[in-house]
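Narrative of accomplishments. A recurring question from our advisory board has been how the design workflow behaves on a single, concrete structure rather than in aggregate. To address it, we present the structure tokens for one chain from the evaluation set, followed by the sequence designed for it. No filtering or post-editing was applied between the two.
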């Protein structure tokens, strides 16, 4: 790979990291060509972009960002074979990795970057699977907001005659 090719790859990675709120760093070494192709196909179906890249190029791309971005913990896991998974849904790669590992030992999660938080190590896979999507969180909030209103309406309907009698009694008392 020439110096120009490396520079192009670093620039492409910078753009990817800039536009990605979520990405995973994994080790998929040891998988056969057939297995890695199967994993790539599953990634494609889940709208996850899988890239196998050199650690030095990933590190150069990440180092171009300010420390506030929070990429520093990822530098420690950039050793050995590395695959980067770019996604728009925070938990989808974790779910995919967990499902794929029902039949294989790989890929192994090295780290995940989720909205400025970095999860390091394969032991974080269950925590990552549990992350809810934006749509799921909005649905939960709507349900929470609707619940008290539904309870009030239900109580009013159930005791409608009691409330009407209470209001009538209060009106008579006022007169």
């Amino acid at each position: 790979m020439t110096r120009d090719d490396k520079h192009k790859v670093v620039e492409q990675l910078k753009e990817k990291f800039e536009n990605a709120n979520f990405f995973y760093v994994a080790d998929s070494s040891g998988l056969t060509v057939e297995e890695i192709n199967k994993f790539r196909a599953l990634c494609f179906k889940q709208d996850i972009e899988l890239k196998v890249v050199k650690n030095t190029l990933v590190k150069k791309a990440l180092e171009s960002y300010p420390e506030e971005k929070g990429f520093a913990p990822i530098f420690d896991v950039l050793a050995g074979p590395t695959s980067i998974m770019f996604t728009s849904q925070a938990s989808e790669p974790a779910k995919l990795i967990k499902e794929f590992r029902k039949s294989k030992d790989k890929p192994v999660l090295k780290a995940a970057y989720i909205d400025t938080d970095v999860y390091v190590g394969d032991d974080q896979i269950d925590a990552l699977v549990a992350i809810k999507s934006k749509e799921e969180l909005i649905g939960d909030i709507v349900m929470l907001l609707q619940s008290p209103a539904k309870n009030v309406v239900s109580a009013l309907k159930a005791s409608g005659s009691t409330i009407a009698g209470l209001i009538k009694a209060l009106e008579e008392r006022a007169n």
